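Take a minute with the sequence and fold tokens given here and flag any structure token that looks odd. Thanks in advance.
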Amino acid sequence: MTLCKGDIWLVNLNPVKKNNEMGKIRPAVIFQNNELIQNNYPTTIIIPLSTFLIDDAEPIRMRITKRDSLEKDSDIVLTQIRAIDNSRFVKKIASLTNNEMQKLKQLFDEIVG
């Protein structure tokens, strides 16, 4: 399993502990830098995706179009960022473009200030 920043993987987010946390097996973008990933750090920072689309929701959501094995247009839900154990990764399904990664970083900076 080779993880890389900007890749979209199916991840298992079950079990959830609170009602406002995203669960299920769903796509998520890897947001952690590659240096930590390559040093076999046991957890990885991800941002889950949702197919429940909300228009004009930036900076808390970013729309991406379907591609590769990502079957539907999806929103990256920046308010659900979290670290998960690496055993939760199921399979790689797509990747963000460089421009999308830059936009995602900008939106994240808006949220955290």
User: Anything to note?
Assistant: The helical segments are 34-38, 98-112.
